[in-house]
Amino acid sequence: MEELETFQNLSLEQSHTSFTALLPEEGLRSGANAAGCQQRIMETVTFHFRTQLCDDERTVIDDSKVVGTPMEVVIGNMFKLDIWETLLSSMRISEVAEFWCDTVHTGVYPLVSKSMRRIAEGKDPVDWHIHTCGMANMFAYHSLGYDDLDELMKEPKPLYFVLELLRVQQPSEYNRETWALNDEERLKVVPVLHGQGNKLFKEGEYEKATQKYKEAIICLKNVQTKEKAWDVPWLKLEKMANTLTLNYCQCLLRMEEYYEVIEHTSDIINQHPGMMKAYYLRGKAHMEVWNEAEARQDFSRVLDLNPTMKKAVKKELAVLNMRMEEKNLEDKKKYKGMF
């Protein structure tokens, strides 16, 4: 909470320089001393931010210090909220500055905020699938999933941005994160991440492998959103993403995250009901959580799609039979004498 107070104690009286003179943009005001625009093309800047409404309570919308993770932006790489690049270019390292921005600059903020919140929650910033349908989907279509952001999308408002510049790095000083790459670079890095994930899987480093696979999937999904659904380019990307997702699920099986495996494989099956490997992995996950009927059904579907899997399926069914016998014995002992 002390760090929050540092932000909140920033006074408009601290301003000794006209921000309008430094940054000739309409709809901007500075409430702190700004260093002046600097050449920072393709530098990565690391900073904390707090976003507030311009109401009497100065309602906080987002605060990276509360989340505990600073933000990173590559200047000149077409970040959605480009006004932040302008603001950060006006600041010195370790400086805390407050800026008022009119709606001409804040209209896309709800979309950016949604992505940042999903990342902070450990989710993919790009929605892979919508799990609602019918009437529910009609209402979900225009929602960002956060009530305050939906309100801002419906009625854009001026916002205060309180920024603290922590670090500035030259391109040679950092490894660019995948979110900072353009589409061509993303497609080039996918096979590299795929290979790294496979290597980590073979070494038994399953959690690290999941990070590589997930990073590659996010790269593909970001590119895929710009293609028309079910067209050839979209389908090629979808096939690559599904392969990576199934590798990701294999790691989750080793990590005993069975319900997450069921969720991801079900997503693939719903979209692509001919994906044999998805049924196989889902069958194994169902087996581990005692869903006997579902496991048998999935393994049966595996054989329908690929009869050459007969030996592997026979082995899995033998394990399933053994596990169900063990469970039935345990249940009998547990409930013996109760009835």
UniProtKB/TrEMBL annotation:
GO terms for molecular function: peptidyl-prolyl cis-trans isomerase activity. GO terms for cellular component: cytoplasm; nucleus. Coiled coil: none annotated. It comes from the Eukaryota. InterPro entries: AIP/AIPL1/TTC9, PPIase_AIP, PPIase_dom_sf, TPR-like_helical_dom_sf, TPR_rpt. Keywords: Cytoplasm, Nucleus, Repeat, TPR repeat. The keyword Ubl conjugation does not apply. Transmembrane segments: none annotated. It is found in: Cytoplasm; Nucleus. SUPFAM superfamilies: FKBP-like, TPR-like. TPR repeats lie at residues 276-309. Residues 30-166 form the AIP/AIPL N-terminal FKBP-type PPIase domain. Gene3D superfamilies: 3.10.50.40, Tetratricopeptide repeat domain (1.25.40.10). May be important in protein trafficking and/or protein folding and stabilization. PANTHER family: ARYL HYDROCARBON RECEPTOR INTERACTING PROTEIN RELATED, ARYL-HYDROCARBON-INTERACTING PROTEIN-LIKE 1. This is Aryl-hydrocarbon-interacting protein-like 1. It comes from Takifugu rubripes. The gene is aipl1.
